[in-house]
Amino acid sequence: MIAFTDVEKSYTVGTKALRGISLQIEDGEFAFLVGPSGSGKSTIIKLITGELKPTAGSVHVNGYSLERIRKREIPYLRRTLGVVFQDFRLIDTKTVYDNVAFAMRVIGAREREIKERVPYVLDLVGLESKARRHPGELSGGEQQRLAIARALVNNPSTIIADEPTGNLDPARSYEIMLLLQEINNLGNTMLVVTHEHDLVEQFSKRVIAINEGLVISDGMDGYYDYENQ
Amino acid sequence: MGITTMKINNLGYLLVEGIKGIFLRGFMSFAAVCVTVACLLIVGSFSSLVYNVNIMVEELNKTNEIMVYVDSELSEAEARSVGTELNRIDNVLQATFVSRDVALAEFIADHADEAEAFSGVEPETLRHRFVVVLEDNSKMEQTDELIKQIPGVAKTSAAYELAEGFTTLQRVLHIASIAVIAVLLLVSLLIISNTVKLAMYDRRDEIAIMKMVGATNGFIRLPFVVEGFFLGMIGAAVAFGLEWLMYDALVEQLESVDSLNLLNFVPFSELLVPMVATFVAAGAFVGIVGSWTSIRKFMDV
Question: What's the pLDDT score for residue B73?
């Protein structure tokens, strides 16, 4: 579960990125987080992953209180999260298999577990046949599916997708959204940050819209047209 | 996962990653090893020089004695008893009695070409004496004062300046060696640290991914520390081999031109154990500390 209560975040330069945000995303829920550039979306993601601490208010993520989390606990918080980025962030020198296995190795998984789990998640995202390829040999959509596989491999309870379709054409974007929905159906909490109106409209999911550091709408009513407010 | 609970397979992974890093950044690794070798060679050569000079100075110093002249009115037996008092002084290593007869014979032998001029000299014109060798020549003046207070001692002859000169030379060598070793270790440390920094900069995206999936700082650091450690150890091994070859060659050369046998070098085998220990410790130190310190700034992701 993700819970923000009256969260404020100011940067040292004086910018107030969040001005008292409260929201709650239940376990197993699917939610879109939308808003224009500079609205505070990235700050919310960074607060969830423990990269930032709130200036005021409280942030609870999967049992961790992030306003008083210790530095050494952050890796364990992150193991409950799978993060997918717009630019995929894959390691070009490693194969598809090793990109996914790497995420398990660096948290100390046993080789036997890796051999069982990696083919399973590659199958889930439709990349099992391309396990020996390198990221450079994959299309944009396939690279993002690989990034999703990596996010999934450590079995996190929550997936945070930060503009996951930003570098993809509409058809591939739709495929990725379907895949994320499928993963959500398996029980993972899903928070998708996006700019894409049309894509959000195609899925009847909760949409949290933020602007200038405030939640301006939150509901199942589809996309909130913040640009015309 | 804490390092203490790290499983064997993880250690294997960390070791492999660390060793792989050396080859992935071949040129930088080569540069780091070369600098370490150069620094350790200079440290080793300087230490060997200091060690040898120290031993030579010690030997020379032993020849710097206090001559203690006994009261001329004392008989030989009475004069000999002064030796007991001399040996009671802490800093006296050895007090050798030289009777006036022996002293005269030695004097005449030393001036063999003018032997006739001394033929009529009676032993009674000389005093019985002791040749006193000290444990610590830097305390020669204080010891000399103590000797003068012994009943039966008429006068003494001691070359304080020479003893102080030797002591100063040893001190200068010690300070210089510590300074040189410290500077060179620092240089090695900075170079290794820089190599690892470049390695980390090169892999900053990978490190960001590791952080994002929940790798602990220890797990991220260890391959780089392993890499630094191996670079340091390779540098130490190469430097040790070269040091051995250079030392033997240099000693051979110097001994071949030292026809008066003034120089007396210790064999490398005598330096082997301390040299190996120093090189291994220095290599490991610069490798581990150099990499550990350079990693910090990349950890705040």
Answer: 86
What is the dihedral angle through the alpha carbons of B255, B256, B262, B264, rounded to the nearest 10 degrees? Answer: 10
E strands of B151-283, at which residues?
Answer: 153-158
Task: Report d(CA B240, CA A57) in Å as an integer.
Answer: 60
Quote the pTM value: 0.68
Measure the CA–CA gap between B100 and B104, rounded to whole angstroms: 6
pLDDT in tens, A17-61: 999 999 999 999 999 999 988 899 999 999 999 999 999 999 999
Q: What is the mean pLDDT of chain A?
A: 91
Distance between first and last Cα of chain A: 30
Contact between A27 and A1 (Cβ < 8 Å):
yes
Which residues fall within 8 angstroms of residue A167, CB to CB, at 6 or more apart?
A86, A87, A88, A140, A144
Q: Is B3 an 8 Å CB contact of chain A?
A: no
User: Is B9 near chain A, with CB under 8 Å?
Assistant: yes
B9, B205, B216: residue with CB nearest A89: B205
User: Which of B2, B199, B128, B146 lies closest to A76 in space, CA to CA?
Assistant: B2
Outline where A169-221 has alpha helix (H). Answer: 170-185, 197-201
DSSP-based three-state secondary structure for B142: helix
Mean pLDDT of all residues in B168-182:
83
Q: For residue A8, give both structure tokens.
A: 């404020």
- The residue behind tokens 């000399």 is B144
Residue B206 sits at the chain A interface (C-beta within 8 Å): yes
The 3-state DSSP class for residue A4 equals strand
User: In this complex, do A107 and B7 lie within 8 Å of one another by their Cβ atoms?
Assistant: no
> Which residues in chain B touch residue A91, judged by CB atoms under 8 angstroms apart?
205-206, 209
Cα dihedral B60, B63, B64, B69 in deg (nearest 10) = 180
pLDDT over 90 (residue B163): no
- The Cα–Cα gap between B3 and B164 comes to 54
Query: Coil, strand, or helix at residue A42?
Result: helix
Question: What domains sit in chain B, N to C, each tagged with a CATH number?
Answer: 3-60+165-298 (no CATH), 65-158 (3.30.70.3040)
Helix H or strand E segment including B94:
strand B92-98
Tell me the C-alpha to C-alpha distance, in Å, between residue A123 and each of A62, A120, A152, A179, B125. Answer: 27, 5, 12, 12, 112
- Pick the residue from chain B with its C-alpha nearest to A74: B214
- Chain A residue with minimum CA distance to B10: A108
Contact A91 B1 (CB under 8 A): no
What burial class does residue A17 get, using C-beta atoms within 10 Å of its C-beta: 0-12 exposed, 13-18 middle, 19+ buried?
A: buried
CATH code, A1-80+157-223: 3.40.50.300
Query: What is the ipTM metric for this complex?
Result: 0.85
Instruction: Estimate to the nearest angstrom the gap between the alpha carbon of B108 and the chain centroid.
Output: 42
Residue A31 and residue A206 in contact, taking contact as beta carbons nearer than 8 Å: yes
Q: What is the dihedral of CA A66, A67, A69, A71, to 10 degrees?
A: 100
Nearest to A76 by CA among B217, B78, B196: B217
Chain B nearest-CA residue for A100:
B213
Q: How far is CA B294 from the centre of its chain?
A: 31
